[in-house]
Structure formats: C-alpha cells, structure tokens
Fold this sequence. Notes:
Elements: E1 3-7, H1 11-23, E2 27-31, H2 34-43, E3 50-53, H3 62-71, E4 80-84, H4 91-97, E5 102-105, H5 111-124
Parallel strand pairs: 1-2, 1-3, 3-4, 4-5
Helix pairs in contact: 2-3
Amino acid sequence: xxxxxxxxxxxxxxxxxxxxxxxxxxxxxxxxxxxxxxxxxxxxxxxxxxxxxxxxxxxxxxxxxxxxxxxxxxxxxxxxxxxxxxxxxxxxxxxxxxxxxxxxxxxxxxxxxxxxxxxxxxxxxxxxxx
Length: 130
C-alpha cells in the first residue's frame, strides 16, 4: 500500500507500530533520532507515502523536521502526521498550522486506529491548507 517513514525513539512502540503497519500491507522505515530521520527522509527515492513524526526525539525534534520538510517543495504532496504523547498546550494548533496534516495523541489512539487513519491519509493524499 504505502511507504511510511516513522520517526520514533521508543523501541517498544516502534515494534508495535512496525508490526501493525506491515500487517496492513505497508512498508515502514523506523528512524530513532531526529537528525537521522531528516537525513533518510530527505534522501528517500521514491518519496514516502507519508511521514509520521514524534515530537520529542533525540538530536532533532519532530517540529524541526516538520519545518524543514515543509520548506522543501519536493515534500509539498507528502502528508506528515504527528503521533505523540506531548500534552503541551497549543501543540496541536502549532503543528497543524506549520504543515502537519494530522495530529494524534498516542494514548488516545490504539495502534489499529493509527493504522486506519494513516492508511486513509495515504489514499487521500495531502490537502493543502490556504
């Protein structure tokens, strides 16, 4: 189905989500620090179907990755999802207004729900906000 780049540093969660996405027919690349994630995503050929970012990553934050990717016209059509447990007031609005296509809180979404939402996002593609 889709090629997913997933920036997440929690090893347990990466195993859970890797299995869930592969079971749904997706290819998934797990990237466990922000700088390595940005490097791999930037060099991806073909481009990912979707990028999933945690906010709190070692070396470089998910917000910094989002900002860099949204400045690169190659990624204009690539949906970017935020999957985090950050409860900082205003984060959802900050990320969505900075170019994220969906913002999900981990503890509010079962892995199967995340897979369904990401699968739908891949089918729909990026909806540009004006």
